[in-house]
């Protein structure tokens, strides 16, 4: 099996079974494929072994090493892997060269940015690498089917505008481009407001807005994505109450756990996020401002 990538080509003579997962989210598709990684890269959150609730049942009694911060070559070597997943890890060419002396390393294809490989592409790639291509295809089909079924249940969503927004460190803005929080809504038939599409996004994944003009966020549905369950900072944004989405009860709050699922954007986490948000999205989009949107109300964001 040959895999062309940004740092060259990786060849696997046989399916891998001892895998170190250095990508910040690659543990999810590995677990979905029935392979428990020897080590997992810590991204954020205080989850046991870096495995979030949507994937924890698949971990069983395995206890992978948790690699936080920079990649420890010593830890990776001590585990004697036969494959290292570097997709979405941010490792440098120098780190790749060292790791390749330990085991074959998979990286993202040349046409993808460091963190820009789609969830379905990653799942299919790993399925090939661990000798389970049919299982990987079935997993991708199941997740796509969940979104297709949601679109069928809500044909009125097609063509409406939607934004996943953030407020972090005093900055407010929207997730855009290939970011999984942006693509989550597009998978459901929503489109971004023209005002956001018209603005340059130098960071490709997100777009900071001027605190003096939050009008680009005024979509048919506005999903606030927060790393915390405390929405006080969002509630305190001075110009938020000028948005029609707020005044008409079309805001949804994705707290820490659901925000984590959206951020992971994996074959396992996306259905979890959809299950968690669908009812609130229906309530926000029913055309009646008086309808309770449970997450927004619980977070103190309701008008």
Automatic annotation (TrEMBL):
Subcellular location per the Swiss-Prot or TrEMBL entry: Cell envelope
Mind listing the UniProt keywords for this protein, alphabetically? Ion transport, Iron, Iron transport, Membrane, Signal, Transmembrane, Transmembrane helix, Transport
Q: What name does UniProt use for this protein?
A: Iron complex transport system substrate-binding protein
Classification via SUPFAM superfamilies: Helical backbone' metal receptor
The record, for Gene3D superfamilies, names: Nitrogenase molybdenum iron protein domain
Signal as UniProt keyword: yes
In which domain of life is the source organism classified? Answer: Bacteria
Q: Which InterPro entries match?
A: ABC_transptr_periplasmic_BD (IPR002491), Bact_iron-sidero_bind (IPR051313)
Family in the record? Belongs to the bacterial solute-binding protein 8 family.
